[in-house]
Amino acid sequence: MTWVKTVVINVLLLGVLMLLSELLFRGLISIGSCKTSQCDFQPLTQLKVRHFPRADGDLGTSLRFDDDLGFVPLEGFSAVIDSALWQKKALTITQEGFRANDSPSDYGRSKVLVVGDSFTFGEQVANYETWPACLERMLEVGVDNGGVTGYGAAQAFKRATLLLSGKDYASVVLAVVVGDDFLRDQMQYVWGRPRPALVNSSDGLAWSEVADPMKPGTMFNPGDPNPILVLLYERSLLFATAIDRSIPELVFRWAAYKEMHPYAADLESIIEWTLKEFSQLSVPSRILLLQYWHDIDRKEMLAERELILKHASTLPITVVDTLDVLRDSDHSLVWAGHHTPLGNSLVCAHLFSEGFGGSAGHVSDTPTARK
User: Are 84 and 53 in contact (CB under 8 A)?
Assistant: First the structure.
């Protein structure tokens, strides 16, 4: 039974190592707190370090099911999101389903619609810190933030078409996170959220039906959280920090998984179709905004960027590419997962200059020029 003894000893050693690592991490957190504020020794004096978020302020409750898009912001939602990522930031959804801008002035009827994913919506920042809110203040013209966390590029375009059916705009900005958003349009679930996918059909690309919203383990039917993971999250600062910075959905409301549609179109076809359809929107100005994650020089991402620019160059749309602006910035100040307020201000200023000519109070009512 030597092997049993070996296993037991190794398990005990692993347990001791994890305990020492936890104590060391808690000590470092406590010491670090003394540099920025009054010393906080609670990590060393209390076993429970986190509270499992079950309150209505949880980010997941800010979304509702939609037959066409899979999920959309919940109209009228308002909360302060208290998590390691959001850090008590205000999240408000208007009665029209847009992220609020909290601008100091009322600019009247919105003339600009922006659509996109979490970078557009403003993940991890307050209402007034998003780049659409910044754009509204710089333009001095109403801007509707139609971004939705987890959306693909074509899905965001689809939302724009639905919003345009009930409201007139002078400009539409389609914001795309290169290397991520177009891939989502091949999926029928993204982070457990049901969605339509672009699939091959006899007539070319077409939208699939929205995936089953009540599939067990998904956003709208999450089931109970794993009690062991909850226990670890609440009592291990090391485990909780790792989860907060990587895959919080593993512990919280729904399964953290993606599922490809079996008949999904290929990536380049989705890019070509989306940009062509976007260029045909009946609005005077159509702007394609390219945004990026922190790994801005990733080979696959740069290859996708070239595909996007190739297809966009033949179409009557304005392309605003933030690659150089973000690449030349201090990355630690511009990204904290998503864009920081500084990162959003850089995107905003570049879009204001390159997409709208740097003119406050002016939004073109004539067709956009190619760039």
Answer: no
Interstrand relation of 198-201 and 204-207 (parallel, antiparallel or unpaired): antiparallel
Closest CA to 355 of 290, 287, 275, 284: 287
Judged by DSSP in three states, 338 sits in: strand
pLDDT tens-place string over residues 312-346 = 999 999 999 999 999 999 988 999 889 999 999 99
HEC profile of 172-222 = EEEEEECCCHHHHCCEEEECCEECCCEEEECCEEEECCCCCCCCCCECCEC
Instruction: Choose among 161, 149, 108, 102: nearest CA to 129.
Output: 102
pLDDT one-digit tens code per residue, 59-71: 668 899 999 999 9
What does the alpha-carbon distance between residue 274 and residue 177 come to, in Å, rounded to a whole number?
A: 14
**Residue 100 zone, left/alpha/beta (φ > 0; ψ -120 to 50; rest):** beta
- Residue 364 tokens read as 């073109």
Residue 187: partners with Cβ closer than 8 Å, 6 or more residues away: 152, 195, 197, 258, 259, 260, 261, 264
Q: Provide the CA 13 distance to its chain's centre, in angstroms.
A: 40
- List the one residue out of 117, 228, 114, 126 whose CA is nearest residue 171: 114
Are the beta carbons of 354 and 102 closer than 8 angstroms?
no
Phi, psi of 230 (to 5 degrees): -65, -45
Structure token pair of residue 52: 């499992």
